[in-house]
Predict the 3D structure of the following.
Amino acid sequence: MSAELILCPHCGKENLPQATRCVYCGEDLEELFRIEGVEDNTALQDEPGISTADLVEALRQADSQKDEKTGAADRNGQNEAADSGGETESEPPAGEDEQTPEWLARIRKRAQQEEDAAGELTRKGSSLDTARSEDHQGRVDQEFASWIARIRENARRENLLTPKPAADSAESEGGVPEWLRKVRELQPEAEEEEPLAEEPAPEEAELKEGQNDAAEQVRAEEGEPNKETSPDENVWESASAPEEALETEPEPEPVREHEEAAEEAQTPAETPEAEESAPAPKTPELEPVLEELGLAAASAAVELEEKPASSAELGADLLLLRRQKENAQILMNLIGEEGRGLPPAKTQRVSGRGWYRFILGIFLLLVLAAVLVFVPEAKPGQVENPAPAAALKEALGRLASGDKVLVVLEYQAADSAELEQITAPVLKALQTRGVEMQFLTTHPNGLWLADALMRKADIPAHETGFLAGGKLGVLAAALNPDGESALVPAGVEKLENYALILLLEDSQMDIQNWIEQAGPWLSADKIGVLASSQNAALLLPYYDAGQLAGFAAGTTEGRVLAQALDRTDLPSAPSRAFQAGLLVMIAVILLGVLSKVEADSGARRPKEPEA
Amino acid sequence: MNAMDIVLGIIGIALSVMIFSYLLGDNFFFRVALYILVGVSSGYAAAVLLTKVILPRLIEPLKQSGTDAFWLALVPLVLCLLLSLMLIPRLVKAGTLPLAFLAGAGAAVAIAGIPRGTLAPQLLSVVNRFSPELLRENAGADWGGILEALFILLGVVSVLFYFHHRLSRKSAGAQRPPLVEGISSVGQLFLGITLGMLFVGFYSAALTALIARMVWLKEFILALLTG
C-alpha cells in the first residue's frame, strides 16, 4: 500500500498518487507533469538558473557543432561544394554593394539621414516597453527554470521508487551480460539463423569492432563505468541521443557511412531520431527473463503510450506516460459517472430459501394434480348468494327481449379462465332471453379474448369494438350525446340507451374508470360487474353506496349466479381442486405462523438468562 | 385433434413448464417465456392500435382534404410528429408538448372524476346510514342496519385515526393517549382484515388460473393418449 504513495519533495510525507498538492504542506507535487528519466539530463540539472535564451543558444550551438561534425566527417573532400555553399549563405557576398540597384541605395541613404518619424517621445516609450518586456521575460525565464527543477526533482524521486536491475546483472562472462545469455538460451534458433541469414562480411565485422572500440573510448573519456544501463536510462539515452552525439567525438568515417547506408536501405523515410526513440519490442519469451532481472517493471514504467514521429514532437508535447494516462482515465471516469445513479445493490440471497419455495410449489402442484385426477367432482350444493350477486341476478332478470346490454371486456389473458367461468353462463342466459348484446373493450387483448368468450358461452359471434384512450375514452363514450362521436367505435350508442352495462373486470383501476367517468352521467343501477375474486373487497363499498346494480366476484359467486339464472356452470369448473388449493394455502399459513412463533420464542430464550 | 392442435398444445405445454420453472428461481427458461409473452403482447397491441386507431382516425381524415376532419386531424398529426422526435436525443424536448398535453388532460379528468365518482358517494353512503328518513321508511328502528352503520363508522374513523396518528407519531415521536392508541389499534385490525381479504382474492384468482391450466394439460394429454 505504501508503495503506491508518493513522497512530497518538500516535506517528505506520503501522498496519494493522484494528488497534485501535498496534503501536509500544500506544495505542488506536479505529479501529472512528471517525465520519468529526466534526471539523466545533467546539462540542465547542473544549471538551475538556466534561461530560455540560454537553452535556445545551446540548441544553436548544438546545431553548429553538428554541422561541424558533419563537415569533419566529410573532410575527405566529399562535401567541399556543400561547405562552400554554406559559407555563401552565412556570409554576405563580397560584391553585394556592387550588385545593389541604384534605387535601393538611395532609399537606404535617405533612411539613414532622416530622423525617426516617431520622434523622441516614442523612442522613450518604446525603450520603456523594451525594459518592461525584458523584466517580464526574466520572470518567465525564472518560472520556467523553477518548473524544470521541479520536473527534475520528481523524476529523480520516481527513479528512486522504480526497481533497479539486480547487481549481478552487470556481471558478464566473456563480455556477454547475464540477461543476454538468458535471452540467447531462450532463442537459440534465432541465434543460429541470424548468422546464416545475414552473415556479416569481414569488413563489416571490422567496422563493428571499430564502432564498439570507439564507443568504449568515449565512455572511458567520460568516466562512465562499462556496465549495462538500466532500461529507463536506455530510454532516456535514446531520447537524448542527439545531445549526446554532440558531446562525443565524431565516429570513424567508415562506421558512419556504413550506418547511413544501412538506414537508407531499411527505412529511407524514417528519421534517425524516430528510430532511436522507438524502444525495441519485447517478445513474450523475453518478459519472464526481464522480470526476473528486475528490468520489466522499470521498462514498463517508462513505456510510452504515444510514440511521436520525431524528436521535435517529443520535445514539443509533454510525454503521456502510463501513469499519467491512468490518472487521466480515472478523471474521465469520474466525470462520466457524474449525475448517474448508484448501481442497484445486489441482494444477498439467503441460501436454502429457494428450496422451501420449490418444495411448497411442488407440493401444491402434486395436491392439485392428484385431486384433479383421482377425486371425482361433486355437485355444488345450493348456496345462498351474497347480496351483491343477488342484486345483479335481479338486474339481469329484469332484462327483456330487445333490451340492449353493453358488455365491456377489461381483463387480461391470465384471468380469462376465471372470468369465462363466471361470464359464459350469464351471456348464454341473456342470449336465450333475446337480449341484444354489444361487445366493447378498452384493452387490445380484449379483441381475441371476446372471441374466446363467445365460443365458451356458445353464443353467436359479435363484433367487438375497441375504445381507445383509457379513462379519456370512457369519458368520451359517456359524453356521447347522439351516439355519433368519432372517438367512440361505430355501433356504440349513447350509454344511457343501454339497459345494463356489464363490466367484465380483473382490475380495480378499470372499474374505477367506469364508475368515476361514466357513472355520474348515468342513472342508478346501470352498471353491473362480473369480476375476478381479487376485486370483491374493493367493489363492496361501491355497491353499498348504490353506484352498482350488483356484482359477482369469483368462481363461487359465479357458479351460484349461474344456478340462479337456470344455467348450469361450465363443466371445467373443478371446485374440489379449488378447495384443495385453499386448504393447502391455509396449511402453509398455519405452518408459517407456527414457525414464526417458535422462532420468536427461540430468540427470546437466550435473552431471559441474561436478564 | 388435428396436427395444428397438437403442435400448439406442445408449445403450450413447453411454455407452461418454462413458467413453472420459476419454482427453481429466476432462470433462463422462465425469462424466455416471459420475453415471449411481453413481445407477443406488445406486437399484438401495436397491430391493434395501427388498424383500430391510427389508420381510421388519423390517416383516413387526412385523405379528405379541405374538410373539417382534415383540419382536426392535423392536430394529432403534429403531436405525433413531436412525440416521435423524442427518438432523436437532441430533440427530446420537442416531445414534452404532447406529453404535457396527455398528462394534463389525464390529470384533469381524474381530478374531476374522483370526487364525483368515489369520494362524495362513499362519504354520503356513510352519512346516509344515519339519516332519520331510514327510520321512517322502515317504520321503526332497524337495529341490524343501525349496528351495521355503527360498525362502518367505527371502521372509517379508526382507520383514519390509524393513518393520521401513525404519521404524527413518526414525525413527533411522542407518546399518544390511550384512547387514540386503542382506536388506532382497531383501525389496524380493520386494515388487516381488508388486506387479508385482498390476499385471499389474489390467491383465489391465481389458483383458479393454475387449476384451469392444469385441467387443460390433463385434457390435452388424455386426448393425445386416446387419439
